[in-house]
Amino acid sequence: MEITTWAQEYFQKTLSVNTIHRAIRRCRLKFYSSKKKPYLNMIQKRRRFLWAKAHLKWTVAKWKTVLWSDESKFEVLFGKLGRHVIRTKEDKDNPSCYQRSVQKTASLMVWGCMSACGMGSLHIWKGTINAERYIQVLEQHMLPSRRRLFQGRPCIFQHDNIFLFMMRQMFSMGERSGLQAGHFSTRILLRCSHDVVIDAVCGLVLSCWKMQGLP
């Protein structure tokens, strides 16, 4: 109905919904569900642009030294099923015509990493991520993946959506490893779109974070 109203106002003519549908089909257009993308404000867009500009001259060999990682939450969304039903007016309370929904959907968190050298570990756990869990994932899955994929060569660990309180605990991870600072040259590649990242903290992480378990 919105497109019909817009067309009537734009062309200053009375147009039916069927007329609009026929015109859309003649133009070989179809109705699709919109793709979902995270909203980005102007500050976030600018930071992403600056990040891309700063890495514009990176060579293919440089990008091959990056260990990429990400985490995502997967939910079973019953509420998305059966949004439309064909029924009579009297069947509104018929259970077969209900739209299914749940108060709290089941979910899983998935973390994974990869590089130009191949696929790293894929880890699945229930519940939400916190600092301690994130550190465990790094120790039990990221470090073995790094050793297997890069065979002791220096690499750049790229992480997404990490928070400052997680960064603080990463220092403890380095201390527990018992390695001297700078024993393994691993840097953290941060996306400039993350508002929580502070340059001073990043510099401290880059210089002090110690990796464990060298081959």
UniProtKB/TrEMBL annotation:
<dbReference type="Pfam" id="PF01498">
    <property type="entry name" value="HTH_Tnp_Tc3_2"/>
</dbReference>
<protein>
    <recommendedName>
        <fullName>Transposase Tc1-like domain-containing protein</fullName>
    </recommendedName>
</protein>
<dbReference type="InterPro" id="IPR036397">
    <property type="entry name" value="RNaseH_sf"/>
</dbReference>
<dbReference type="InterPro" id="IPR002492">
    <property type="entry name" value="Transposase_Tc1-like"/>
</dbReference>
<feature type="domain" description="Transposase Tc1-like">
    <location>
        <begin position="8"/>
        <end position="57"/>
    </location>
</feature>
<dbReference type="GO" id="GO:0003677">
    <property type="term" value="F:DNA binding"/>
</dbReference>
<dbReference type="GO" id="GO:0015074">
    <property type="term" value="P:DNA integration"/>
</dbReference>
<dbReference type="GO" id="GO:0006313">
    <property type="term" value="P:DNA transposition"/>
</dbReference>
